[in-house]
Design goal:
The chain starts with a strand and ends with a helix. Helices cover 34% and strands 22% of the residues. The radius of gyration is 29 Å and the shape is globular. Strands 5-11-10-9-12-6-7 form a 7-stranded mixed beta sheet, sandwiched between helices. With 692 residues, it is α/β, with parallel strands linked by helices. Bound molecules: pyridoxal-5'-phosphate.
Length: 692
């Protein structure tokens, strides 16, 4: 009898994206290859352009059969406690210098494999220290292998995950079992490197597999693995050979750490990827597995807050006052900490929040209709103002119909979750706004994320999806029109064409383009001179229009359907009349007078010239100018420095944008004068030079 090892490895432009291995009978090779191939082609880390599937054969007599290590869980409630627990276990394992061992862990954070550490001399034994040692050729024992081809869980489907996804806890246990049985190895220590998980484990033949529920702060991407070696120097070759070459099948692998409770499986997730890194632990913060009673119900929230604080992720609200520059309230100026500052961070693009006509109409609405509506739109919340605004919006955007929501966020969330169903597939730009992401997720539809503004990637992913047969319902493409953190414009004309070609719905979020782009501020349809409107044209009254509330423009069918289906519309008190009146007034102002729109577009032009003059590395076709400065700390310091000089500019950093992509986000308004823009550019150039 013989067995086959099957290994899959997929990369894109030489960057690794996915990999997996199995040990199987010859008869299962076909099915396994298909499943691995699907996984390689649908991995959300990238689009494989190189896939390798390697098969090797070995007689069963040469395979080592092991029994899975027994699993126990230690619940720790803080990183400190987790560390204490790890030290105690290492001590129990007989290590003389447990503290020094833990101190070595950070050195593994950027390694692909594990560190091989001589616990007597504290010497590192990996031949290649950047790569580390990777244990391979291991799988679950024969009798259990059939279980492995599990269909994706609902959660995985929802996240647009791949088929044939494995039970990650089992993978971690299989690896730990092999390592613990390696010659001259005392055991292993592992910390998850997934920022969403805080778990780790210590495993050895004597201790078994001990899960520790909190070992690092939430949000931290730092994790790694050390194999603990204890032997003569020349014996390390034998250890490495075993880890890398000995075929191992592990029997009696429980389905979950709470082995008796199989239905809990879907709530678990402890991944090791092919590089032997645990990429997601078993417990999210606070999930303690079986019910665990605490004296303090608020403890876990407090802990998480503490951990965020440690990571400098806690954000303070900044209290701003209107500033009366030369006796006149101006949208461009605010008072912050008793100092007047030039506002260069607001979405109030046209400065309409302070327009006298807006203020007057708001007051009038208060006088005529009172402060609130007292009910949802379908009960007591509709005033003539609401209906009039919806009519005006439809006319202004050139669609059959329109409806108003309480905010842009609520609009996106309720529209998408009402329109999309689990059998649908939604193609979503990688940098889409959170409200779009949340709406897609809540709908239960399959989400396929395509690379930012990359039409080739979108087309390829649509083709792949159609071929795979995942799409049994409706397809939809969803995109921001102007991306809020980058200020760039989606290729709306192409998105619309692609949508048309495949018969998909096209949803465009015009939060940042309404009132700003197009000759008269009507947004991207005007900007691109589109003949037809996107099927779903969403926007907000709260940015350029200076009021509050979200809206959707579309055909009568869609709008009527959503009035009966969008829960954020049906089950929430209608917008206050003052906000509604101001929203409509803003449109009226724009229809009457293009000068606001021309002014913001002029300012964009002028600020581009200023940036060129002062050699500031940014350029934009919209009022949003990202200036990428790299490190989080640098962006924060630069913003502080600018604040001292009287400029209110936001530093944007992880998790809003990727790590190391921290930036200053400068936002222009129509109310800024050329002199103000020029001074801003000058000040930015100065801090770029001074802050390193
Ligand atoms: C701001 C924003 C929203 C949310 O609009 P609100 O009215 O502020 O809730 C939705 N989508 C995008 C792209 C946004 O930038």
């Amino acid at each position: 009898m013989e067995k086959f090892s099957v290994k899959m490895r997929a990369s894109e432009k030489d960057k690794h994206i996915s990999g997996a291995e199995q040990i199987l009978d010859a008869t299962d090779l076909g099915e396994a290859s298909v499943s691995l191939l699907t996984r390689a082609l649908t991995h959300d880390k990238g689009n494989a352009d190189f896939i390798q599937i390697k098969m090797e054969k070995k007689p069963v007599e040469e395979i080592l059969f092991l029994k899975a290590l027994p699993v126990t869980t230690r619940t720790t409630l803080s990183v400190e406690e987790g560390r204490e627990e790890m030290l105690a276990l290492l001590h129990q394992m007989g290590l003389k210098q447990p503290v020094s061992v833990l101190e070595m862990l950070p050195l593994t954070y950027h390694m692909r494999g594990a560190m091989l550490l001589d616990v007597t001399t504290m010497e590192r034994l990996e031949p290649d220290k950047s790569r580390g040692i990777r244990a391979t050729y291991m799988d679950r024992g024969t009798s259990e292998q059939k279980l492995k081809m599990e269909p994706p869980s609902d959660v995985e489907k929802k996240e647009g995950g791949h088929k044939g996804v494995k039970n990650h806890f089992q993978e971690a246990l299989i690896l730990a079992t092999k390592v613990a049985h390696s010659p001259h190895i005392l055991g292993e220590i592992c910390i998850s490197d997934d920022p969403h998980y805080v778990t780790g484990y210590i495993a050895s033949k004597s201790l078994g597999y001990v899960r520790i529920t909190t070992v690092k702060p939430m949000g931290s991407p730092h994790g790694g693995r050390i194999f603990l070696f204890s032997g003569e120097p020349h014996e390390k070759e034998e250890t490495i050979r075993f880890l890398q070459e000995q075929w191992v099948l592990v029997e009696d692998v429980p389905l979950s750490p709470l082995s008796s409770c199989e239905t809990m499986r879907e709530t678990m997730g402890c991944t090791i990827d092919e590089d032997n890194r645990e990429i997601s632990g078993l417990n999210k913060v606070g999930e303690q597995g079986p019910f665990l009673k605490h004296d303090n119900k608020f403890l876990r929230y407090q802990q998480e807050l503490d951990e965020w604080r440690e990571l400098e992720l806690i954000r303070e609200e900044k209290v701003l006052f209107s500033s009366n520059i030369s006796q006149k309230m101006s949208p461009s100026w605010v008072e912050y900490q008793n100092t007047p500052m030039l506002m260069m961070a607001s979405n109030n693009y046209l400065g309409l929040t302070h327009h006298p006509d807006m203020i007057e109409i708001g007051k009038k609405a208060l006088e005529n209709y009172g402060t609130g509506t007292g009910g949802s739109r379908l009960t007591t919340g509709t005033t003539p103002l609401h209906q009039s605004l919806e009519k005006t919006l439809a006319k202004w955007k050139g669609t059959e119909s329109a409806m108003v929501f309480n905010s842009g966020y609520v609009a996106n969330f309720s529209i998408l979750s009402a329109l999309l169903r689990p059998e649908d597939v939604v193609f979503s730009d990688q940098l889409n706004h959170a409200s779009l992401i949340d709406g897609c997720r809540y709908s239960g539809a399959t989400i396929v994320i395509y690379a930012h503004n990359d039409m080739e990637d979108l087309t390829r992913k649509i083709e792949e999806t159609l071929e795979s047969g995942t799409l049994t319902g409706q397809g939809m493409i969803v995109s921001d029109g102007v991306f809020s953190m980058d200020g760039d414009i989606a290729p709306v004309d192409q998105l619309q064409q692609i949508g048309k070609k495949y018969g998909f719905l096209f949803f465009l979020d015009e939060a940042h383009s309404t009132g700003v782009l197009g000759e008269t501020g009507r947004g991207l349809c005007e900007h691109f001179h589109l003949k037809e409107k996107p099927d779903l044209l969403m926007g907000t009254l709260s940015k350029a229009l200076g009021a509050e509330g979200g809206f959707l423009c579309g055909n009568k069918i869609i709008i009527e359907y959503l009035r009966h289906k969008a829960r954020g519309f049906m089950f929430s008190t209608a917008l206050t009349p003052a906000a509604v009146a101001c929203g409509e007034k803003a449109i009226e102002l724009l229809e009457k007078d293009c000068s606001f729109v021309r002014k913001i577009q002029d300012n964009v032009c002028y600020f581009n010239q200023c940036c060129e003059k002062y050699k500031i590395p940014t350029h934009s076709y919209t009022p949003i100018f990202p200036i990428v400065v790299g490190e989080e700390q640098r962006a924060v310091e630069m913003a502080q420095q600018l604040q001292k000089e009287g400029f209110f500019i936001s530093p944007i950093r992880y998790p809003t944008v990727a790590k190391g992509q921290a930036r200053l986000r400068v936002v222009l308004m129509a109310s800024h004068t050329k002199e103000e823009l020029q001074r801003t550019a000058q000040a930015i150039a100065k801090v770029l030079r001074e802050v390193n």
